[in-house]
Structures are given as C-alpha cells and as structure tokens.
Amino acid sequence: EKGTYPHYMLKEIDEQPAVIRKIVQAYQNESGDLTIDGNIISAMGAADRIYIIAAGTSYHAGLVGKQFIEKMAKIPVEVHVASEFVYNMPLLSENPLFIFISQSGETADSRAVLVEVKELGYKALTITNVPGSTLSREADYTLLLHAGPEIAVASTKAYTAQLAVLSILANVTATSLGLSSTIDLGHELGIVANSMDGLIDAKEEMEAIAREYLSTTRNAFFIGRSLDFYVGLEGSLKLKEISYIQAEGFAGGELKHGTIALIEDGTPIIALATQEAVNLSIRGNVKEVVARGANPCIISMKGLETEEDRFVLPVVHELLAPLVSVIPLQLISYYAALHRDCDVDKPRNLAKSVTVE
Ligand code: M6R
C-alpha cells in the first residue's frame, strides 16, 4: 500500500535507509559480523572470473558491483547486458561463476542466459528481491535483497539494495581470502543509511533542481568518471523512463570524442563528483561544457566540493558513494516527471517485469 504517498516511487525512494538497515541485519550473524552462505563464498573463491548478467537498472548495479568485487576481493569481473550475452558469448575463463542480478527474478533476457550457462555446467548465483522467483529457483544459489515489494516501474530501492548486497558479497569474499582490502562494512553501511535519511529530507531542494534544470528542456546529460559514470547511467535511465526527457549518461573523458557536439545554450548537464582521484578531471569536463553554453548542476561529496556546486552529499566511504549519489538523481527524475504530468509509477510503453525476450 502506498499509504499517504502520492506515488509508489516516492514511497520506495523513502524506504531506502530502512532497506539498507534491514540488509545489514539480515546478513549479520550472532556476533554482529556480516556473513554469506559458505557455499556461495567457496564458489566465489574458486572462480577465476565472475560474469555478471543483468538488464536495465540491475545492469547498472552490476557495473558498480564489478568495482566492489575487483577492489575488495581481487577477482576479475565482466558485466554483460543479458540480451547481448545470450547470442554473443565471450570466450569464457576456465572456472567461471555467473551472477544474475534481477529485482523481479523473472526477466526473460537474463533467464535465457541462465538456461544456457546451466546447460554448459557452470554455477550460478541469483541476487533477487523475490524469493522463489524463476531466476532464484533455477540458479544454484540465491542472495535476497530484502527490499520489500517494489511496485513502481522505475527501480529505486532495489538498486541501492543490490549495491548493498554486492558490497557484502565482495567484502565477505575478501575476508575469506585473507585479503587486506576489506572494510568495516557494517559500520560503513550504517553511515550510508544515515546519509540517505538526510537526502530524503532534502526533497524540496531536489524539486527546485528539477524545476530549474528540467522543466522545459528536451534533453539532459549526466557525466561522471569512474563510479560516478555508472551512477550517471542509472540517473539518465531514471529520467528518460519516467519523464520522457531524452537523457544520456557519459564518461567525462568521452565528451570530447563526440558528445560535446550535442551541447547547446542551456543544455542541462548533471555532473557527479564523489571520487577524489577524478575530481579535478570531471571539473575540467564541466568547464568544457560550460564554455559551450551548458547549464551545469554539480553534485559533489563533502570534502571535494567547490563553490559552484549545486548540491553537496554527506561523506560516505568512497566505494559506497553510489548508494547515496543516486538518491538525488532518483528524486530529481521523480519531480521532473511530476512537473510534466507524467504517469510516474506506470510510464508509457513499460512493464514492471519484462518476461519476453
Ligand atoms: O527485474 P529486473 O531487475 O531483472 O529488471 C531489469 C530491468 O527491466 C529493470 O531494471 C528496468 O530497467 C527498470 N524499469 C529500470 O527502472
């Protein structure tokens, strides 16, 4: 039930801090440590390469998940769009492990790949919000998102839940492998949940940003580097899906290789700056687009901010920044759609779960 909320999407955005806390609880053992089923951790440790398969928002979560797994657990990861992978499989490694990420657990494109890899005799793990879903039943292992039902077509809380579960999987694997690249994840996810609370309270500010940048535009671009690039892809999907504004996410460094030709007077550019190593270079990209007339909206993380920034996010562990930086993008999309009288929860031409290939 959406209760007093005008839309499920807004309710689901608001639920995110509680979902993160629930995930931490669900994956904690009696001594308060985060744990994962030993069979899954053995399968992770035995893999020489991990293949993440997903679609849409879940694919975007996979792109961030790759960074978690590679940076913490030091296992190489490839991320593939399910509908492409199915007919164009890359050369596989000797001991692959497949991870399917799917909120619904019913996405036909992902299932087609699962059927294929099971036939080849490989192990598969499904990360899903729906216990007993097709992808969960047909895989060897399942990790649940604990996000509660997601009703709005635009995925919000499932994305942050996917990131939280992927971070736990990566960190627990790293611990089991005796690596020093682990972090105090229970504590860090607690900080993430508290930061999310603050962002959710900043709705008026997000509505103002949507009004200022997106009320009349026909297009909008999201730029970022490293993890911020992947969050930009998700932000642009959210915006196009529910507001019908033509939106694209780009890697900051790719602008000069073509995209910059699209910048006109007043074109909104939403730039994310949460990663210290690329802070200067993304700001250089903002200068390049401003010189061509763009209207920049910089969302940065505290400690990296400059005076020109439109919104500053509270500090969280740098690797976990996507869990908080996506929230303003979800809210901005929500308000942009609302201002344009769009059907926020049920955008045209879309279904909540895509059960045809
Ligand atoms: O249920 P799934 O996670 O497998 O769904 C995948 C995509 O269809 C889904 O994420 C879609 O892109 C959302 N509508 C995005 O908001």
Automatic annotation (TrEMBL):
Instruction: Provide the protein's localization.
Output: Cytoplasm
- What Enzyme Commission number does this protein have? 2.6.1.16
Q: Name the reaction it catalyses.
A: D-fructose 6-phosphate + L-glutamine = D-glucosamine 6-phosphate + L-glutamate
Which parts of the sequence belong to the SIS domain?
A: 40-179, 209-347
Which BP terms from GO are recorded?
carbohydrate metabolic process; fructose 6-phosphate metabolic process; protein N-linked glycosylation; UDP-N-acetylglucosamine metabolic process
User: Is this entry keyworded Protein biosynthesis?
Assistant: no
Q: What is its main location?
A: cytoplasm
The lineage's top-level taxon is Bacteria
UniProt GO cellular component terms: cytosol
GO molecular function annotations of the record: carbohydrate derivative binding; glutamine-fructose-6-phosphate transaminase (isomerizing) activity
Residues of the active site: K352
Q: Does the keyword Cytoplasm apply?
A: yes
Sorted UniProt keywords: Aminotransferase, Cytoplasm, Glutamine amidotransferase, Repeat, Transferase
State the function annotated in the UniProt record. Catalyzes the first step in hexosamine metabolism, converting fructose-6P into glucosamine-6P using glutamine as a nitrogen source.
Instruction: Give the quaternary structure.
Output: Homodimer.
Name of the protein in question: Glutamine--fructose-6-phosphate aminotransferase [isomerizing]
Which organism does this sequence originate in?
Peribacillus saganii
